[in-house]
Amino acid sequence: LYKFRKSSINSFFIPMYQVFEMFLEQLFRKYFPEFEVDTQTTKQAWKKQEEIDAELSDEEKAYNIRTDILLWSKDSETVPEYLIDAKYKPRFSSADRYELGFYIHEYDTEHGFAILPVSPEDKQNNQSPTNTVITSKKHTPPIKIHIKYISNGLYMCHLK
């Protein structure tokens, strides 16, 4: 170990954002049985210019978006009841706001939810981020992004 001739330590990476998404999926499946839970849904959002399209395969022609979780009412199949974006990060950024706003626009709904874990730094400082709502009034009707925080102890215990 001290001579560095051989590596005695094997590192590994746990994609915590995927663990967080799977936890939220299971949470919604278990506690909201009245909804159809749809995860990692891909939807076409843009098409490339026609002159470029001629050179591309069908798969390359469209730019797609992929939402984390959609909750569908069992009565409606056209517009999701809830659009949820899992964010395994300490803060909801401006780029995240635009991403979720675009999802809301594409799915023709008025509300989107970003769910984030409470960060270890907040816990150390005995601070809890507050749930907030941001509204874009330029749209009719106005769209709203609900930012919700969940204790990371809750989903870590759930994984055991």
Strand content: 25-35%
Rg value = 20 Å
Shape: globular
Q: Mean pLDDT, rounded to whole units? A: 80
End-to-end Cα distance, whole Å, is: 32 Å
SS content category: alpha/beta
Low-confidence stretches: 155-160
Structure description:
Strand 2 and strand 3 form a beta hairpin. The protein is an alpha/beta fold and 160 residues long. Helix content is 29%, strand content 31%. It is built from 5 helices and 6 strands. The relative contact order is 0.14. The chain has a 6-stranded mixed β-sheet, sandwiched between helices.
Set down the secondary structure blueprint:
Elements: H1 16-31, E1 35-47, H2 50-53, E2 62-73, E3 82-86, H3 94-106, E4 111-117, H4 120-124, E5 132-136, E6 143-150, H5 152-159
Parallel strand pairs: 3-4, 4-6
Antiparallel strand pairs: 1-2, 2-3, 5-6
